[in-house]
Structures are given as C-alpha cells and as structure tokens.
Design goal:
By secondary structure, the chain is mostly helical. Helix content is 56%, strand content 2%. α5 (108-123) runs antiparallel to α6 (129-145) and α6 (129-145) packs across α7.
Length: 265
C-alpha cells in the first residue's frame, strides 16, 4: 500500500508543470541584454553592411541567443521564434554575414564568430538555408586548413601559438559540428576532419599544461545529446559543449580549457 501511494505521488509530482524560475537577478540580466541589443541596433550593428565589422557574427549571435523571458530555464529564441523586430534585424545582418563568409580569407576571430551565428541561424529556421550552409562549409574549411602543426590557430594563419584566436576558432568549429551531425545537413567527412584537428589541439594544450587530455565517453555523450534534443521544444537551440572540457590549470597564464576529439556517432 505504501509503495502504491509513493508511486502515485511521484506521478502527480512529475505531472505538475515546474514553476518559472524568475529572480530579481534574472530580470536585471534580461533587461540589460535588451538594452545592449537596442544600443547595438542604434549603432548599426544589425544593418547590411554591419557597423560591427569583423564582430558582426558576435552581435548577431547575441540576438539569436536572446532568451524567451527572464525565466532562468527559458530557451534561446533563435530565428524561428524571434520577435518581429528582432527578426527584421536578423533579416538585415545575416545576409551580410553569409555573403562575406563565402570567399573571404581566413581571420580567426571573424570566421569563428560568423560560423557560430550562421549555425544557430541555420538550425533555427533562418530562410537562407542554402546560403548559410554553403558559407558554413567555407568557413569550416578555412579554419581547418589554417591550423598550425602545433595545434593552434593564429590571427590569419597557423603561424603562432595564440590561445585567444584558437578559442574563437574552436567555438566556430563546435558550432559547425552541430550542423554537420544534424540529419538534415550531415557531413561525416567534415566531422572526421574536425576530430583530427581537435585531437591535435587537445594534445598541445595537454602538453603545455602538463595535464591529461581524457577521451570522451562516446556512448554516454551521444545518448545525453539525443535526450536533450528530444526534450527541447521546436526551434530551441541545443548547445553542444562537448567540444571542450575543463582541465586543471597547473601553471599560471595557461588556458584552463582544452578540447578533445568527439565521436562521429
């Protein structure tokens, strides 16, 4: 009898919708984001061409990642669920980013940021699907081709061991991976190239920090990602954080984040 009551109680609790998690802090953050986006809009960040220049990808990403509300558990709006005014902004700036990304030379900060913005735009229903996909492939290939033999990316080539340019490039590659493992845009060959580049970078970070670059548990990570995808509402963005793992900082001045190869499936 007691067991039956516990089961019934568990089912009732599970069926009750969770209350929104809105705090004074989350309201302040949400308001600050809105004010920041409004300032960027007035400054011309979302125009074509964008006044943000090489940082246009980051400003567009801030708009795409805008949350639905001040609820701490609210999802990013992306393109599909963007408010009409925000969608109008995206309709201006994204064609600029997509067009310039196709045939540009490699620049780590710009290519990493642009790829992040284009990936979210593509995966959340941005109208220029073909253009965004073609430009993501182009920036991906540039980033892969410009990695130095030491595993890092420099500003416009692989000629120096710079951690900040490497981090932006890796963020872009992680975003591209979310596209290439998506059933609608699957690209196993590029995922394999990414795994090789990430492994090279991981080995260098591990060597420099005297830390261990531990492998990802492929089955667990993939199962977790599939569960996330199944539980998110249409249009929600599922962040793919498996492209990086925190490692202990053993020496001052060295990056505290290393990346590691990811399973194809």
């Amino acid at each position: 009898m007691r067991r039956a009551l516990l089961i019934i109680l568990a089912l009732v609790v599970h069926a009750v919708p969770a209350a929104a998690q809105i705090t004074n802090f989350s309201r302040d953050v949400n308001s600050s984001i809105d004010l920041g986006l409004a300032w960027l809009d007035q400054a011309g960040a979302f125009r074509n061409p964008s006044a943000s220049g090489n940082a246009a990808g980051l400003t567009a990403l801030a708009l795409l990642e805008k949350r639905e509300s001040a609820d701490l558990r609210s999802h990013p709006r992306g393109y599909r669920n963007a408010l009409p005014a925000d969608r109008n902004r995206l309709d201006q700036v994204m064609p600029f980013i997509i067009a310039r990304s196709r045939n540009a030379g490699f620049y780590a900060y710009r290519d990493g940021a642009d790829t992040m913005a284009m990936a979210v735009y593509l995966l959340t229903g941005g109208p220029d699907q073909a253009g965004a996909l073609a430009s993501i492939r182009a920036t991906f290939d540039r980033m892969i081709n410009n990695q130095g033999g030491h595993g890092y990316w420099c500003y416009s080539n692989g000629g120096c061991q710079d951690s900040s340019t490497t981090q932006l490039t890796m963020a872009g590659l992680a975003a591209a991976r979310a596209v290439f493992i998506n059933p609608g845009f699957r690209d196993d060959a590029r995922v394999q190239r990414l795994n090789v580049a990430v492994a090279r970078n991981c080995q260098r970070y591990a060597s420099a920090a005297r830390a261990i670059c531990t492998p990802t548990n492929a089955a667990t990570a993939t199962t977790r990602l599939r569960a996330q995808l199944a539980s998110r509402p249409p249009g929600a963005v599922v962040p793919d954080h498996r492209g990086r793992r925190h490692q202990q900082r053993l020496r001052p001045g060295l990056p505290a984040v290393a990346v590691q190869p990811l399973p194809l499936r």
